[in-house]
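Figure S4 source data
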Amino acid sequence: MQNLLLYIKNNLTPTLAQILLQALKNSNNEKFFTFVLENIETICTWLNSSEFKNRYLSIKHPYPPLINPNFIEIDASRHCAELAWDLNLPLPKHYKFIYISPHGVGAAAFLRYLNQCCDVTCFASWVLPPDAKERYCLNYMCLNDNTITQYAINISEINLPYFDKYLSLLDFNSKIICGVRDPIGILKHNWGRDWSKVLRNYPSEFNLTYDWRYYIDYLTHQNHKIKIDINELQQGVFIISYLLKYFNKDNVYYLDMEEIRQSKAFDTMNLLAINFNFTPPHKDKLDLFKIKEFRGYIRYLFPITLYANSKDINNTFYLNTPKNNKNFNIDKTSSIPIILDRKHINHEKIDIIQEIIKNDLCNDMGVYIDKNDFKQLEQNNLLFSTIKHYLYDFLYQIKITIDETESKMMKEKDVIDYFIKNKSLVYTFFNIFENDLNHLKQKFPNIINSWTYYKEFEKCVKS
C-alpha cells in the first residue's frame, strides 16, 4: 500500500491523486484494489492525458473514469460490472432511451407495451434493488449481453444511495422519454389508492374448497384519510426538474399519459418506435392494449394459482354452501394448476377465461392452463364443469368489486375540493408544480394547456 501511495504521489498532481484516492476510499471491492495495483501505470497515464483533462477535468465531472472507457475489454459478467462501477466507467451508450416515469404517469402500461409488444427490455425501476450500484450493474450486464438487442433504462425515483453517481455515469446526451400527466390526476392516483394492498397479505395458492370471498375482501376499497408526505412526493413523483439537470434538455420527449390510454396507445407506440428506433408493436398483441393497468386492485391480487383436483369436487365452495369442508392441504402433485393473472402472451399455456365468462374482465385478466393439462381436463367433464362453476362465481364477483372500487375511488374533482378546503396547501403545491414543470411549460405549453384539472387548480391559486 505504501508503494502505491508513493507512486501516486510521484506521478499525479494533488487534484488527480485525490480523484483516484477517493475512488479507492469509496470502494470495498478487493478486486478493484487488486486491479488498481496491477494497472497503476495505465491509470496514471490516462489521468495525466490531455483527453482526460479536456473531457472530464475541465468540466469538473464528479465521477471521471479512472481508465479510458474506449480502450477496455469488457463482458457481461458481474465481476466486470462491479469493477466498472468502481472505475467510474460510463454505462455503454447503446440503450435506446431513458424513460423517466414519475409515479402516476402510466409507467406500468408503457413498460408493458415496451417489453411485451415491442421487444424492448426495460425493467420497471420500482421492482429493482433500492441501490444505485445494483442498478448500474444490472444495466451494465444487460448492455453487454449480446442476446439483448433492444434495451432501455427506467428511472422513477431518486431516493437511492449513490444515485448522483449513477446519474453521472449515464450519457448526458441520452434520448429521454419523460412521462407527464395533469398533476391533479397524479395526486388523485397517489392519494386515492390504498397502497397497503401492495403487501399482498393473502395466500397465492388455493383449491376448490377455498372461500374466494377472502380475495374479494382484499379487492374491496376502503376510503381512507389523505396522508400528505411532501418529501415522499418529491422523491418519487415530482422528480422531473431534479433529473433533467443530468441530461441535455434538447433531447427530452414529453409523453403525456393521455397518449398511452387504451384508444391511442397502439398508434403512440408506433410513432415512438420510429422516433426512438425500436421495433413497432406487433399487431397480434393488440389485446394487450385493452388492459387497464390500474383497474381496482387486481394489479396486486394476481397472479394466484388454483390447484384443481377431483378429490375436492364434493367439498367445492359455493355461495350456497359456505360451510363446506375446507381442505387446507393443497395437493400439488396430482392437481391441475390454473393460474389467474393479468392478460399476457404465453405460448406454453392456454387462456380459458372465455370458457368461464364473457365480459370486459377478459380484457384485464386471463385464466391460464398448460396445454397438456387442458387436454386432460377436457376428458374429465365433471372436474371441468366444477372448475368453471367455481371460477364463474369468483370472477363475477371480482368484476362487481373492481367496478364498485372504480366508482368509489377518489376523482380529480375530489382533489380540487380538497385544496379548496385546505387553502394553506395550495401555494405549497403550486410551487412544487411550477418547479417540476418549468421546462415543460417553456417548451411545450400546449401539453399543460390541455390539462383541465390543472387549470381548475390555477383558479384556486388566483382566488
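Figure S5 source data
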Amino acid sequence: MARFMFGLSFKGAGENASDSAKIEKLIQSLQLLKHPEGGWFAETDRDPLRIPNPFLSKEQQQHAAVQYTAAAAGDDTTRSAMTTIFYLLTPNSPKGRFHRNKGRTVHTLHKGRGRYVLIRTDEAKPGEKARIETFVVGHNVEKGERLQWIVEGDIYKASYLLPDDDGSTESESGLLISETVVPGFEFSDHNFMPANVLPELVSAKQAVELQWLQSSN
C-alpha cells in the first residue's frame, strides 16, 4: 500500500459542501439520482438479452451467508447480459463507500480525478491479510493516472474525489465515469462491507486508516 494517509485531500468536501452550479447542471442534464453508495448515478443502458444467471452455480454458494442490498425480484435464474450507468462524485457527495458486486465492472473516465481503493481478497491465501491496491483515475496518463480500469467480481472497492490537479484545492466538475457491469447489475448481486469485516481483511493500522470509507456520511 502506498505510504500516505487515505482521505479527502482538499477542504470544503463533504455533506456540508455546496456543489457548483456547473455540477448541479450536470446532475440535471444527465438526470442523475442519489446512489446508496454515495455520489450520483443514472442507468443508461440495460441489454434486453437475458442470459442464465452464472451466480447460481455451485462455485457461488459461498455467497449464501452474505446480506445483499436487495432481495432478488422476479425471475432470479437470468440476468441482463450487460448494464451501463453514469456515476458521479461531487464535493457534496465525495466518496463511494466499500462495496462489491458479483459481476465484472469496466470503468471509463469522462472527467475529473479520483482515487480508487481495492481490497484484493482474491490474492490472499487462507489466514493472510489482503493486499490493498490503490490508484488515481484522471487524464494525466504520463503520471500513471488511469482512463479505464476493471474490477473483477467479489472485490471490495471504494472511491473518493480528488482535486482537479495536484496543485489545486477544488474539483470544478466532480468525477464522472461510466460503469459497465457484466452480467448486468442487480442490487441482489451487490453488498456493502459489514462493519466487522474490514479488520478481518487488512491489518489493524490499515483498518483504522480506511474506516471512513465504510460509513455512509
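The domain at 21-48+79-213 is CATH 2.60.120.10 (Jelly Rolls). The chain has one domain: 21-48+79-213.
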